[in-house]
Structure formats: C-alpha cells, structure tokens
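Bit of a strange request maybe. I'm writing a small parser for structure token strings and I need a real example to test against, not something I typed by hand. Could someone generate the tokens for this chain?
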Amino acid sequence: MESDREGPRASIQRDRVLSLQEDVPEPEEESLFTPVKSHTRKKTGRKPFPDYFPRIETLHDISEAEKTCACGHTLSRIGEEKSEKLDIIPAKVQVEVHIRPKYACKHCEGTSDETLPVVKIAPVPAQIAEKSMLSSGFLAYTITQKFADALPFYRQAGILQRSGVDLSRSALSNAAIQVYEKLSPMIVDIRKELFKSKYLQIDETVLQVLNEVEKPNTSKSYMWVIRGFIREKPVVLYHYESSRSAKFLEDWIGDFDGIIQTDGFESYDSLL
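Reply from user aminoacidic:
Good idea to test on real output. This should exercise your parser:
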C-alpha cells in the first residue's frame, strides 16, 4: 500500500495537514440579500400656504330643509372640511387726492401782523419725485417691475392702458430718473458698506444702450456688479460704465485691502 511506502517524516506532515483542515470552519452559504442603509424620503404633497396670508372664508352649506333627518329630528353639525386655494388681487389703479385747506382772517384780512402770511396753508407733502403726477407707491411699483422683474417701461405702459391709464413710457422713464437723482447719495453709503467686507466679488456684463451720447447703438457698454458680505448678508452695487477700462476699478476699488474674486479679465490686474 501507498501508506506503507511513506517514511515517518511524511506521516507526521500528513497528520499536521489533516489537523489544520479540521480547524478551518466551513464557509457559510452566501446570502441572496444585501443590506441597504435606510434613507429619508422627501415628503410629497402640497405645502401649506403661509399663515401671514389673509384668509377669506366662504361657507358652502346645505339648505335648511336638508338639515332635517328622515326621522324628523334636526341634524347636528359634527365637523367640517376645509380646502384652501391661492387667490391674487390684480394691481388696482386709484387716484390720491391731497387736500390742503387755506385759512385767512376775514376780520383784519391779515393787517394786524404784516410779518405773517395773509393765507395759511399746510406745506406740500415731501415727494421722492417733485412735481410728478405719480405717487411714491406707484414709483416703487414701476421701478421694481423694471429692474427686478425685467419688465420694460413700454410694456408697463401697455398694461396700464388696459386699465384705462394713458401713461407713456417716457413719463415712466423720466420719473425713474428723478428717483435715481434723489437716491444717488445712497451709493456712497453702499460703497462704505461694501468696504466693511473682507471679501468682494466683481464681474462686468455687456449692456447695450440706445441713443447714448457720442456712441453708436451697436457699441457695447457695461454694467459692473460688486458684491460684498456684511454680517452674512450680501450687499450688491450695480454701476454703469460706457467702457471696460480699469479706471473704474482704480477709482472705486483701488483702496480696498481685502480679498477680491474675479475672472481673468486683464483690467482686474490694476487691483494687484
């Protein structure tokens, strides 16, 4: 036999191998299922409308006859069902009438004190655009539509015309210019706020202006946008320039000593 031909050393080695094989555990059967980590799902369905929206309730009730049971007794109200629909009230045009009563003395007709005016009347209320026929609320509305909602003045004029208001786009444009002239000192304050930031973002974008002085309509102008962060809130300044030169950056940002993030346009090298 084969075992009879093995020497003592071979027999010892065989016994060791058999011993090691006995110590090896049998492999478990591979599971058909792979564990998957649980995850949260985003809730579906309509979000409720904010609580600060006013609620106008409309009651839809059954008739008084239907409130009587077949047994002859009156039905009791045991609950109700509510559903909400979002409504909007379109812009409503109205006319503000400012009345300033005039006063005078019919007895002396103002001769008792010549230093005082003969007729007394309250001063004209302060207006953002003097001698404008548009109220401050109207101006805020039309400027928001123009610059925040990208609705040109000629389209606004068409919308107003459907409401019976004959107001040209030039009138809207002139009123916006008056508002700018009144608020332009605020630009200095905005710039001061920007410089309180340790970090600025700057970019410029092409803006085409029609009928600009000494420039053809096909030429390019630029809107510079500077953004900073004060108390974790963004402060943004928009500034129009007819060119893309570095002079604007030197005049406005040259003395800023914080970090500036821009693209690779060469004009920004003037800030280095």
